[in-house]
Design goal:
2 helices
Length: about 120
């Protein structure tokens, strides 16, 4: 009789602990995925800023392919401010939980080759 009672207790403890462990596991996965996506987007923003600073125009296939590689449905812009080039990517994050933000922004700057502003 005691053996059955102990087994029932273990089942109840398992039922209480399992959802908590699953939530922690999903949260860790979600945070890791978000960090990876942000790192890829940040690298892409820097590459786009570098390409634009070297004189490649916004509608060039190199820039368009870099945007597509970083984020499938990104809003992006390149801004020229004197000798500086600012590239900005706004990417969507498909979160399996609702704990993380839906979008994030990656920005990067580069200096124009020759250091002169674009008129």
């Amino acid at each position: 009789m005691r053996f059955r009672r102990g087994r029932g207790q273990a089942v109840v403890e398992f039922a209480i602990v399992t959802p908590i462990l699953l939530l922690l596991l999903l949260g860790a996965f979600d945070v890791g995925t978000l960090m990876l996506e942000r790192e890829v987007a940040q690298g892409g923003a820097q590459t786009i800023a570098d390409l634009a600073a070297s004189g490649i125009l916004e509608d060039d296939p190199l820039i368009l392919s870099e945007v597509a590689r970083c984020c499938a449905d990104a809003d992006w812009s390149i801004t020229y401010d004197g000798p500086l080039v600012l590239a900005s990517l706004t990417c969507a994050h498909a979160s399996p939980t609702t704990l993380m933000p839906d979008t994030f922004v990656a920005t990067a700057t580069a200096v124009l080759e020759g250091g002169e502003a674009i008129p």
